[in-house]
Design brief:
About 30% of the residues lie in helices and about 25% in strands. By secondary structure, it is α+β, with helices and mostly antiparallel strands. It folds into two domains: about 35 residues; about 100 residues. A four-stranded antiparallel β-sheet has the order 1-2-3-4, covered by helices on one side.
């Protein structure tokens, strides 16, 4: 009997919620009000707290992402076993109001014995659901889906 009551209560609650949503959507939208027009909204504030190029976290993200992409999409066992000549190329190269990004380059030591250039950027609040930093990267010669073509040029500032 209590299950039936909770099911009926849930159905009634959902019906009320649907009616409120329908009524709210039926109201015509108006022009911006006095407060909307006369106050400047500052938007997101960034701290420019972006990891350095040499830090383990961004490099580990690249290694993990590269191995996952190669295995999942290209049926390959290639992996990045290390990095050398890691250096920063630019930090916030655009307007100061844009998302802070650190652009880096390195040489990736790939498991096939070849050394390949890798270009990557680390962005503030670029992680999943804008939590933590995000890393976008491209390994020259192994950008098989041509996302950063030509030769990873689109991964650079």
């Amino acid at each position: 009997m209590s299950r039936l009551r909770s099911s009926v209560g849930l159905a009634v609650g959902l019906a009320i919620l649907a009616a409120v949503a329908l009524a709210a959507g039926a109201v015509p939208s108006g022009a911006a009000g006095f407060f909307e027009k006369n106050f400047w909204l500052s938007g997101p504030r960034y701290d420019a707290d972006v990891p350095l190029c040499e830090e383990a976290a961004p490099l580990g993200t690249i290694q993990d992402g590269f191995a996952a992409k190669e295995g999942r999409f290209w049926n390959s066992t290639l992996a990045i076993v290390g990095f050398e000549k890691v250096r920063q190329v630019a930090f916030r190269p655009w307007n100061a109001d844009t998302i802070p990004r650190r652009f880096c380059q390195a040489v990736a030591l790939v498991s096939d014995g070849k050394k390949r250039p890798v270009y990557y950027s680390i962005s503030e609040d670029g992680g999943f659901a804008s939590i933590g930093f995000g890393v976008d990267w491209c390994v020259v010669g192994l950008d098989r889906n041509l996302a950063y073509n030509p030769a990873c040029r689109m991964a650079r500032p």
